Amino acid sequence: MVTDLWINLPVKDIAKSKAFFTQIGFSLNTQHGNSDNSACLLVGQKNVVVMLFDEPTFKGFTNGEIADTKQASEVLLSIGVESKNEVDEIVQKAIAAGGVSKHTPGEMQGWMYGAVFTDLDGHKWNLLYMDYSKMSGS
Question: Mind telling me which Pfam families this protein's record contains (predicted)?
C-alpha cells in the first residue's frame, strides 16, 4: 500500500531556493533532508514533502537530463488555499521573492479562484481557492 508522496524538484541553488520558498510561507523540515545538496519543504496541513535537490544530485537519481523549463512546462503543482486573498498574497510574495507570474488571479468555472507563479527554477505552481458550494452538482 502506498503510504506517502514526495515531490522531488531540481534546483540550481539550494540556498536561494530555500529562501524563496520560506519567503512565500512554506516550512522547512529542519530534522531531515537538509544538506548542501538538498532541502526538505513541508507544504500544507498534511505536510506534503517537496524535496529540492541541486541539479547534479537530481540527475544522479534520475539518470537523465533535466527538463528545460524555459522551453516547456514539466509539471503544474497545484496547492489549495483557504481564501481568494491567500491566492493573491502568495502570488505577490512569490513575485517579491524573485518568482514570476504572468497569470492574473481570477475566477474559473464559477467556483475556483486561482493564479500561477513560476519559482526561481521555472517550476510552475498553481494556487487555488475552491468554493465547493458553488460547484455544479453540489
Answer: Glyoxalase (PF00903)
